[in-house]
Amino acid sequence: MNWLSEVKWDAAGLVPVIAQESSSGDVLMFAWMNREALEKTAETGRAVYFSRSRGKLWFKGEQSGHAQLVHEIRLDCDSDVLLLKVTQTGHEPGIACHTGRHSCFFKLHQGGAVTGYWKITEPVLKDPQAIYK
Fold first, then answer.
1. pLDDT tens digit sequence for 38-88
2. Is residue 88 part of a domain?
3. For the chain, what is the domain count?
């Protein structure tokens, strides 16, 4: 059986992907892959995603220079979510988020259900205007 056939693709032919920094364990981002993106990721050792908004492959770092070197590709127990263990390149510390932050998960819920709010927990490491020219 082809290893790609073991992945449970959704109705659009996509699978959700979590990118985790291999050195720190930080969850960097969430994205999608189609079959071609997963094949190219395995072939090149660089993260390649599928951009739903653009309808095409997205080579992480193609515009920003903040690529992801892939050390491991893991498939969850239900075969419907991928985990990439990566090294984020292009800036120290690595910038994975289009907002110029290390991680896309920089908003922390505080204050409970009634008075809750989102607290920004990570600084902008580089102005996005300087990243995406």
1. 999 999 999 999 999 999 999 999 888 899 999 999 999 999 999 999 999
2. yes
3. 1
